[in-house]
Amino acid sequence: MQTNTTPTEIILSVQNLTVSFDGFKALDGLDFAMADGELRFVIGPNGAGKTTLLDVVTGKTRPQQGAVTFNGGLNVLRTPEHQLVQKGIGRKFQTPTIFGSLTVFENLEAAAGFNDGIVRVFGRVSADDRAKIEQTLELIGLHGRAHVRAGILAHGEKQWLEIGMLLVQEPRLLLLDEPVAGMTRQERNRTGELLQAIAQRCSVLVVEHDMEFMRSFATTVSVLHMGKLLCQGSVQTVQNDPRVIEVYLGRSHQQH
Ligand SMILES: Nc1ncnc2c1ncn2[C@@H]1O[C@H](COP(=O)(O)OP(=O)(O)OP(=O)(O)O)[C@@H](O)[C@H]1O
Ligand SMILES: [Mg+2]
To answer: Which residues line the pocket of ligand 1, CB cutoff 6 A?
Structure first.
C-alpha cells in the first residue's frame, strides 16, 4: 500500500502530551505516532480527547506539556497555526467551509490559489493548477459536477469537495474529524474508498465514531480513552481487546 515511502519514516510523533482545561486533563500524557503514507483511524468514547489531539497538531490548542514533531523535524508546538498549513498539515472540519455561491471548480481554484499565495482572477488558472484540479475532481467523484454551484450539492458531495480543496493544497498529512457523520451508507462507502485512495498520496488521520465504517476501511486503529492511548493495532486486535470492549460497552457485558 505504501508506494512512495518506507514504513519507518514517521510523519507525526506525539510524546507525553498533556492538555488541561481548568485542571481537567483532556489529554493526559498521550504518546502517539504514525508512519508516512499511513491511513490511521483514531477512535474512542466521547470526551476521550480525539478532537483535542487534532487541535494540538494544527496549532489551535497549546498543551501544558509534551512534544509534537511533524515530518521528522518540525516542532509543531513552536510553529504558528498558519505556518503548519503551509508545512503540509491540512484539516477538515465537520462543517464544510466551501463557498456556496461559487461552482465546484471555482472552489477548487480558490483553494489552489490560496496555496500559491497568489490572488488571481478566476478563469486565469495556470495549466499546472488546472491539471491538479481536474485530477482532484476525478478523485473526489465530482467531475460531472464541476460547474454546479457548490451550495446545491448534497451533504456528501460537499464533504468531498472540502476534502478536494485540501488536496489541491497538497498536504503531507490530512486530519479528518468524523468525516462520515450524517452521510448515507452509500456516501460512507465512497468516502472510505476516497480516503484509501488519498492515503496513496499523503498520510491520513481519521477520527471516527462509526464502527462499521472503521471495520470496513481501517488497517491500524488507535483507541483513546481519558486522554491516553488505551490500545493500538489491527481492527481485529482492538475489537477483541477487553479494555476496548469495556470502555465502549460497559462492564456488564464482560461479567457473567
Ligand atoms: N475548550 C475547552 N474547554 C474546556 N473543556 C474542553 C475544551 N475542549 C475540550 N474540552 C473537554 O475535554 C475533553 C475531551 O474533549 P474532546 O473534544 O477532545 O473529546 P473527543 O474525543 O473529541 O469527543 P467526541 O467523541 O465527543 O467528539 C472533554 O471532556 C471536553 O469537554
Ligand atoms: Mg471530537
So the answer is: 21, 26, 44, 46-52
